[in-house]
Design brief:
- The protein has about 200 residues and is of the alpha+beta class.
- The chain contains seven helices and nine strands, in the order βββααββααββββααα.
- It has two domains: about 80 residues, Phosphorylase Kinase, domain 1 (2-Layer Sandwich); about 110 residues, Orthogonal Bundle (Transferase(Phosphotransferase), domain 1), CATH 1.10.510.
- The longest helix has 20 residues.
- The protein is globular, with a radius of gyration of 17 Å.
- One of its GO terms (molecular function) is ATP binding.
- Keywords: ATP-binding, Kinase, Metal-binding, Nucleotide-binding, Transferase, Zinc, Zinc-finger.
């Protein structure tokens, strides 16, 4: 179904490829999961993404088109031509105006607001999970996202990228992630947007 498939990233979940849809030539991103990734986790990511209709209306989210299975599960997603926010800042920070930075900060804040309005926590908000497409922010990677009611019933495991994790998680053994935890991560990202690098 795809042509010109090229790997553009990898992580704990698996790999991400850039490819052209054979029928239209449109550029898409393919997120391929490792064999040991539970089907439940994959379905959770798709459901959390699709739950936020307001996301799509405001174009603040990397849109999922379909879920494929061919030996491995793969999500077909919207491709972000600017890459991750982390890499975008590294390459373009010197040319960004304060208005550009404000727009990025505003769009990320609105995206998080949309998630929280749906009672969903992202739980892994960092500059590698935020993407830039045509100079607009796209929030992505919902692999660790959960509805708040599910978190209240589950354990209190530590997840995410350490510089962006709510410090209360390290100070209180049974602390559970909440909306304030996402907002702490957002604060770190706003620092990163304003300075060009993470604070820690």
């Amino acid at each position: 179904q795809f042509n010109n498939v090229k790997i553009i990233g990898s992580g704990g979940f698996g790999k991400v490829f850039r490819a052209n849809w054979r029928n239209t030539g449109n550029i898409l991103a393919l997120k391929e999961f490792k064999y040991n990734t539970a089907v439940k986790e994959i379905i959770n990511e798709v459901k959390c993404n699709c739950s936020c209709s307001e996301f799509f209306n405001k174009k603040l989210c990397a849109h999922n088109y379909s879920l494929l299975k061919n030996k491995k599960f793969m999500i077909v997603m919207e491709y972000a031509d600017g890459g991750s926010l982390r890499n975008y800042l590294k390459l373009n920070f010197s040319t960004l105006t304060w208005d550009n930075k404000y727009q990025f900060a505003y769009q990320i804040s609105k995206a998080l607001e949309c998630l929280h309005n749906e009672e969903i926590l992202h739980r892994d908000l960092n500059s590698n999970n935020i993407f830039v497409h045509q100079n607009r922010i796209k929030l992505g990677d919902f692999g660790l996202s959960k509805r708040i009611e599910e978190i209240s019933k589950s354990g209190s495991e530590t997840i995410g990228v350490i510089p962006y994790i709510d410090p209360n998680k390290f100070e209180q053994k049974n602390y559970k992630f909440n909306k304030k935890s996402d907002i702490y991560s957002l604060g770190v990202i706003l620092w990163e947007i304003s300075s060009g690098k993470p604070p820690f």
